[in-house]
Amino acid sequence: MSHRIVTIRRVWTTSTILAAATVAAASPAAAQDADADVVAEDEGLGAIIVTANRREENLQDVAISADVLGQQRIDNIFAAAADNTALAGQVPGLNVESSNGRVAPRFYIRGLGNTDFDLAASQPVSVIMDDIVLENVTLKSFPIFDVERIEVLRGPQGTLFGRNTPAGIVKIDTVKPDFTPSVSAGLSYASLDTFTFNGAVDGGIVDDVLAFRVSAQLQDRGDWISNGFTGEDDVLGGYTDFAVRGQVLLTPDADNRLSALATVQYRDLDGSSTFFRANAITVGDNDLRDDLDRDTVFYDAGGGNPAEYQQFGASLKLDYEFDAATLTSITGYWESEGFSRGDIDGGNLVTGPGFIPFPSDTQDSIDLEQFTQEVRLASNGDGPLTWQVGAFFFESDFDVTTVGFDFPPPVTVNHTNDAWAVFGQISYQLTEMLRVAGGLRYSDDEKDFIVVSGAAPQPVSVQDDQIDWDVSVFADVATGASLYARVANAFRAPTIQGRDVAFFSPPSVAQSEDITSYEVGFKSELADRRIRINGAAFYYTVDDPQFTAVGGDGNLVQLINANEGEAYGFELDTAFQITPEFQVTLGVAYNDTQINDENLAVGICAQCTVTDPTTEINDTTRALVDGNPFPNAPEWSGDFTAEYALPVGDDGEIFVFTDWVYLGETNFLLYESEEFNADSRIEGGLRGGYRGNDGQYELSVFARNITNEQNVQGVIDFNNNTAFLNDPRLIGAAVSFRY
Question: What's the sign of the alpha-carbon dihedral 243, 222, 104, 90?
Answer without folding.
Answer: negative
